[in-house]
Amino acid sequence: MTIPQLRGLLFLTLTTLVQLPSSAAELRTWTTSDGKFETQAELVEANDSAVTLKKADRNVITLSISKLSKPDRDYVLSWLIERKQSETLRPGIVPDVLGEQVDLLSMIDPANDTQAGKWERDANALVSSRSSRARILIPHSVSGSYQLRLVAQRQMDTGSLNIGLAVGSRHQALAIFDYGRSKRSGLAWIDEKNEPANSTFYRKPVFTTGRDSEIICTVHHSHLRVTCDGKTIFEWTGDPSRLTLHPNFKIPSDRLFIETVLGSYRISQLQYLPIRESELRQYKPRGKPSPADSVALIEHPLGHGSGFLAAPNLLVTNHHVIENAPADDLKIFFPEESDFVHVHGVLFEDVDRDLAILSLETRRTPLAVAYDGYVPQGESVQLRGNPAIGGGVTLRNAVVKGTLRSMVRVDGFDFLQVDASIDSGSSGGPILNELDQVVGVIAMKATDEGEKLIHEGLARLDDSFKNKSRQQTQDGIAFGIPAQDLAKALDSVRAMTAKEAGRRAQLHESRVVFKRLAALAGIRLLEANVNVPEAMRQQAARVTATRAADDLVELIPAEPARLLRSALQSKGTQEIIALLQQNMDKHLNTIRSSPHLSQSSIRDFNALSQRIEAIERFAQRPGENYLRFSTTMMRFQREVTRLMTEIKEEL
Questions:
Q1: Which residues neighbour 201 within 8 Å (Cβ) at sequence distance 6 or greater?
Q2: Which residues pair with 341 in a beta bridge?
Q3: Which of 2, 214, 424, 597 has the most C-beta neighbours closer than 10 Å?
């Protein structure tokens, strides 16, 4: 067996033993400050006053922290800090801390505040009359970051609602909803371009006639996001000096306003909430969104791929690009930067959709996302990524032109089909329309197996099955995850609490550790089989000839076993094993202290790592008795299978 074949076997072990979305347990010596008590145990729980310890015999004891030796108290303190950090990990956009709500609706006097057309009171609501333009100024000064919330109802099937927003201390923007016959929405004016010509263009109707809808405009110094009934309609990030109002508007720079065009709207709620604290206050992006600036190369020891910023500090990629790497192993390289950016955590994983979202910290400007997901057939698109072209060469931020062919549906999921030639390594990069909006995420390169592999084999395309996919390539066809699915994923990340973000990040780390343990278990069981002496093979031949083989392990024949043993001992294989074992103690310690896993799952992780060590020792000395060997191997296989099944149920 050649080294490439063995690599394929190891990755096959990794992906077939574990169909998912460390050393032994750390027994340390605990002593009391007076030296009268000492025990070997692992720490399973702690608070400010006591620790819970589990000894090797599985007996659990509780000790007061005040009675522990100083080294033990320091160890517990570090353990508690690590757990606290895992609970408070935050997404790239943290939940805003809102100040006291101001009821703007009660402040408005239509007689004094109307600038154009006609507005009037209807009970506790504000209603515009149908006219070419009805505008009312809100008599309240705003500054800094804030949220504007309003509940609006369209009274007839025609007409748009516009909201004037103050941005920073000197700039203004106009949010437009359902304008014209096409009912388009977006932000005007950006770089003196209105919504059909800038990256906030949204093509689907927002309002339903006769039904209330809640609009929330979140405004920071350099970032705007507008939602309707919890769904993002458009988002913009950039230098606020690029925002202007049309010269016909004569509005003070610190004031908000509402207007309707060729229609009537009923405003039943209107509130202003200052944002007292947010990481976005310090967020100062570099210029306007640019694919050349915001598409990144993702590298880790087991592979590489592409990704892109789709919101401040949130990087999008394919799930298969990062699924086998803990956050510490992921290195994000942006153009024109030699140093990599660290990943804080993996906050979103969708195996079926092959989509992942990572949290990091960068001042680069995210790309705009086409939240309506609309891409007309035949539209020109641009694909960006970091393809591998062979010989260890990777092209950075390569651009490929293409044309949208159609939408295909596979196993209940829609994929964009694009006429474009791409190479492996581009997975996770953006598909962009002519406005440089993200309309899709590159998912795979078409092969003869093509659509079947979209759902069940994406991870193999970029790495282990690279050569195979090149042989089978149908030139000029690529697939992408539609922007609508990306938009839903981004909104779900924004809605996360800090605790939920920490739980998601910890689950990713736990899955990676589990997969690595599963691969190591398969390797060690294989080692035990190929290491048996020739005398045992002769015994096996005699025994299997006279009794049922249900409780016997089938031995690999001598010559294949010799080749496998040589391959397992080679430098290349040992490097792979070292990668699987890298930082295992650290990862297992994090799992042991995680507040997001059950105690039974933590125990199973510890037990699985112990079994793998036991199998490794057994593989070095498998003995000479075939029946005893079979009994031991069958026991190991049952225990490993049981533990893996139990862990998978929680992960």
A1: 184, 186, 195, 234, 370, 435, 437
A2: 332
A3: 424
